């Protein structure tokens, strides 16, 4: 019997998740849940988020595709009361708070959650753990060059912003330093945050700039470049959603380097979420990071990789 799946949120990741489930046929996609009045391009029923509770006997797993800045901490906490969930919460410094809350609720309501699932946090978490525990040296993470979904969403949530997209660009000198065990890297100097922002009529560039530069967890203290452009320019930029990243671990004599390169960031993330759906029924009630889920749980043929 196929696992019945729902998707919460119908932005870039929600669209990619819908395509991944429909095209691969491993699971049944029952519905998409959104706060907006939208229609599915593939014919999937779209239901108001306020009506989600009515589906608790019709859906086994909810994939949470909202934004980390304003959505997932409360949405995942609400939805896990009635469903098993997988979410993509990626505000690294707030993950301990998010996981603790989810774990309490999941156990209380006898459900399971995999949180912060994606590529970072997610598979990069695996790379970091392996590199650090194998070498006991230093581990550094670099993102880009490419489109950050989370940072772009954070920009779009600012009052007065009509649309926006953010590119994360790694510092080449910092990457060189990461390969030198004796170098200490300033985390705020590892990347440049290049923001393209289109404003609503009457919005103040000065006010928006100040909000961006002082946004905690996303831009505050970092190297930030802000360019105000037209909506048509943003639309053109959003046609390409590429991204990349690397995890570098070193000791005195050795290096482990893991890299990813993707033409479409939402699609890549959706593929990872899709893989972890099959792991949920094998877990006890509670909330789990990707580090706590055995890799054998996502594959029927794990012995073939030995």
Provide an overview of this structure.
- The protein contains 9 helices and 14 strands.
- The relative contact order is 0.16.
- It starts with a strand and ends in an 18-residue tail after the last strand.
- The longest helix has 14 residues.
- Helix 1 crosses helix 9.
- With 306 residues, it is an alpha/beta fold.
- Strand 1, helix 1 and strand 2 form a beta-alpha-beta unit.
- It has a 7-stranded parallel sheet with strand order 3-2-1-4-5-6-14, with helices on both faces. The protein has a 4-stranded mixed sheet with strand order 8-9-10-11, with helices on both faces.
- The chain is 30% helix and 25% strand.
Walk me through the topology.
Layout: E1 4-8, H1 12-24, E2 28-34, E3 46-48, E4 61-64, H2 72-79, E5 84-87, H3 95-108, E6 112-114, H4 123-135, E7 138-143, E8 146-147, H5 149-156, E9 161-170, H6 172-178, E10 191-199, H7 205-213, E11 223-228, H8 231-237, E12 243-250, E13 255-262, H9 265-276, E14 286-288
Parallel strand pairs: 1-2, 1-4, 2-3, 4-5, 5-6, 6-14, 10-11
Antiparallel strand pairs: 7-12, 8-9, 9-10, 12-13
Helix pairs in contact: 1-9
Which properties best describe this structure?
306 residues, globular, alpha/beta, single chain, 7-stranded parallel β-sheet, 25% strand, 9 helices
User: Which structural class is indicated by helix and strand composition?
Assistant: alpha/beta
How would a crystallographer describe the biggest sheet? 7 strands, parallel
Strand order of the largest sheet: 3-2-1-4-5-6-14
Rough shape? globular
Strand content: 25-35%
Helix count, per DSSP?
A: 9
Radius of gyration: 20 Å
What is the number of beta strands?
Answer: 14
> Span between N and C termini?
29 Å
